[in-house]
Amino acid sequence: MCLFLTFSVNLLGQEIMKAEISSATADSQIEARMDVAKSKAALLKTDTLAEPSVRETVSSIGGRDLILRKILPIPLPKASGALKLNEPLQGFSAELLQRIQEAQVLEPVQLRLSATVFGGEYTELTLSLEKRRYEIWTNVDFSYLPFLGNFATDTRSYNYTGFNYEIDSDLERKRAIAAQKLGFKYRTQWRKPPVKFTSREPEYVLVMEGGGIVPKEVYRQLDDLISYYLEHFASLKLSHDNALKLQAAQERYDARHPEVPQDIILNFTRVSESDK
Description:
Elements: E1 2-8, H1 23-50, E2 53-61, E3 64-71, H2 94-103, E4 107-118, E5 122-129, E6 132-138, E7 151-152, E8 156-167, H3 169-181, E9 203-209, H4 216-231, H5 233-256, E10 264-268
Parallel strand pairs: 3-10, 4-8
Antiparallel strand pairs: 1-9, 2-3, 4-5, 5-6, 6-9, 7-8
Helix pairs in contact: 1-5
């Protein structure tokens, strides 16, 4: 037996907008990012080779050299006295520290969630709470969930971890046709919600196999997630679109600058025993 519980979700607040980038801007950002990476790599190589070595060995690996350099022992800094937690931090009074601690009222919550988006039409969510998983269907398009990150409500601070999958109906149809031509039967990944949503307003349906009591915490996490996601939908979509442009810009950069194998240089030494 399956139990279907349907809830409506209210839109909250106004959306936070971010600046959209053009393809030219994406190219410029990737160029700058790669220039910084090259500068850091060159500086690291210079600093590594600046250490006098007492012995070096060179071996070739995949078209590049692996250089192991044994350098003189590095003296470890003397450990300073450990900070006692029961003592006030220097510069802060005990009264101020107490006020800071009292102000930290947001409850930390771990949100463990996976989402399968079906053509941007609806989404199947799997929410993990304690040792149980809950299946939820919603008419909210969660294509931009990977850009959510951590978020906060008035009373909670959510740490989101999860996975996102997208199923395209046209691609599934093409795979089925191709499999049929080869004499195979393709089992489509496309699924439909177990119920028909009542309106275009944001809704979700919680599916319970065999019935049972659903903890209130499940509803609270879902309400907080969907409300926050819808409130920041435009911002998340822009982040998604900008990421695609940056990815395309990175691919264009890589095509213009084929990778040249670089030597790997590693320094090693002993720090606690006498050098032999």
